Hints:
Blueprint: H1 4-13, E1 18-29, E2 32-44, E3 49-53, H2 60-68, E4 75-80, E5 85-87, H3 99-109, H4 114-127, H5 143-155, E6 161-165, H6 173-190, E7 193-198, H7 201-207, E8 210-214, E9 221-226, H8 238-260
Parallel strand pairs: 3-7, 3-8, 5-6, 6-7
Antiparallel strand pairs: 1-2, 1-4, 8-9
Amino acid sequence: MATAVAKAEQAESVEYAARIEHVSKSFGGPAGQQLVLDDITLDVAPGEFVTLLGASGCGKSTLLNLVAGLDDPSAGSIKTDGRPALMFQEHALFPWLTAGKNIELALKLGGVAKNDRRERAEELLELVRLKGSYGKRVHELSGGMRQRVALARALAQESRLLLMDEPFAALDAITRDVLHDELTRIWEETGLSVLFVTHNVREAVRLAQRVVLLSSRPGRIAREWTVAIPQPRRIEDAPVAELSLEITDQLRGEIRRHGQQ
């Protein structure tokens, strides 16, 4: 993992981690082409943590997939500083491999020499607070531990941009809160840029430097908020709750407008 100084120098050398310019996306269906995303323009700065928020079906995950390169936009362009790493809602670990071997597979695909993989996997497990779990099978891990391994596997790709698609949605509230703390710590230690999709308003405010709200389908950028609340933050903190209420009111307005269309 690059040092903080190296990350700072890297941040100064590039203009953006992701640049999304006038992106639209349509999918074909029985009723013809359906517009899912409409004219999205958004930059993620080096080292910035941005959350994408919106009602179900607004195109958040579609946009993340486009940034990841899993699909192509119907219009517009997307540029990233290197190839992004993607972390899904489901951990997607291979159950026949140990925690360490799941990470080593990503290292292998990244070109890391065989003799170096075990040590690097151990380092990444320690980074996500799973020291000593290299040999554990997936079924021996709790839901939160599995997501930590999935995060370590994403970090193994040495990407400068981490894309996260509701990675904590299936976890209980306490485990999710712990992983919020861990993700914030890792983001601060590594200097990664993060684009994080969620439908949970408080989670968005708890984590991000900037919250971007998408309107209901077709998804457009309805509004953005800079989150000036110092870290560490808690879900129950008064400033987090206050900003969450403001964003929730805006989100409800977007949902009402969609229902009237």
